Amino acid sequence: MPNTAGNNPGNNLDNGSNGLADKAVAPAYATASPSLTKRPKLIPNRQHALLWYVLSLVVIGLDQWTKWLAELKLNFHEPVAVIEPILNWTLAYNYGAAFSFLADQGGWQKWFFAGLSLAMSLFLVIYLTRAPRQAKLLNVGLALILGGAIGNLIDRVRIGKVIDFIHVHYADVWHYPIFNVADIAICTGVAIVVIDMLFLEGKRNAKFQA
């Protein structure tokens, strides 16, 4: 018996149309797949760094204002209780670096630490323009460090020493070195940058192209 199915013109048309459909779909799939794997690029801050400079200016303003109040309202090394027994306002001056490092030197440390702060500040100003715009937490940390560095730099240039007044302690058993708002900003900023490096930078690099 003749195979009518094989000679059926309708079947031939169906097969032909299926083949055309396959050919039409294949190029679309082939061209779509590369775009699915393409990652967006990391965009440097550039002019958007102005936003983070504003945050630095806020830190500087708050730091200088609180130091002005401390010198206006407090007497040198006379503690004023704020939260007993853990927090006092105590006016002190630091001629050295953090924790009074090199404070007992002959005065050369003033310009050494001023130069160091200036170099760090200039580096951060430039780096903020190049830091990724997508790395918002990193930018916050850098802006805090910049504001704190400039806040203490102003003290060193203006009066040759850094004004401190925040005294954390526990009764008379334990005393933390007296510090200021700029120190808080620097320490917080460093902690944020470290957190970004440890937990966010790898994810960011995997998500975005450099």
TrEMBL record:
<feature type="active site">
    <location>
        <position position="164"/>
    </location>
</feature>
<keyword id="KW-0378">Hydrolase</keyword>
<keyword id="KW-0645">Protease</keyword>
<dbReference type="Pfam" id="PF01252">
    <property type="entry name" value="Peptidase_A8"/>
</dbReference>
<protein>
    <recommendedName>
        <fullName>Lipoprotein signal peptidase</fullName>
        <ecNumber>3.4.23.36</ecNumber>
    </recommendedName>
</protein>
<keyword id="KW-0064">Aspartyl protease</keyword>
<comment type="function">
    <text>This protein specifically catalyzes the removal of signal peptides from prolipoproteins.</text>
</comment>
<keyword id="KW-1133">Transmembrane helix</keyword>
<feature type="transmembrane region" description="Helical">
    <location>
        <begin position="174"/>
        <end position="200"/>
    </location>
</feature>
<keyword id="KW-0812">Transmembrane</keyword>
<feature type="transmembrane region" description="Helical">
    <location>
        <begin position="111"/>
        <end position="130"/>
    </location>
</feature>
<keyword id="KW-1003">Cell membrane</keyword>
<dbReference type="GO" id="GO:0006508">
    <property type="term" value="P:proteolysis"/>
</dbReference>
<keyword id="KW-0472">Membrane</keyword>
<comment type="pathway">
    <text>Protein modification; lipoprotein biosynthesis (signal peptide cleavage).</text>
</comment>
<feature type="transmembrane region" description="Helical">
    <location>
        <begin position="137"/>
        <end position="154"/>
    </location>
</feature>
<dbReference type="GO" id="GO:0005886">
    <property type="term" value="C:plasma membrane"/>
</dbReference>
<dbReference type="GO" id="GO:0004190">
    <property type="term" value="F:aspartic-type endopeptidase activity"/>
</dbReference>
<feature type="active site">
    <location>
        <position position="183"/>
    </location>
</feature>
<keyword id="KW-0449">Lipoprotein</keyword>
<dbReference type="InterPro" id="IPR001872">
    <property type="entry name" value="Peptidase_A8"/>
</dbReference>
<comment type="similarity">
    <text>Belongs to the peptidase A8 family.</text>
</comment>
<feature type="transmembrane region" description="Helical">
    <location>
        <begin position="49"/>
        <end position="66"/>
    </location>
</feature>
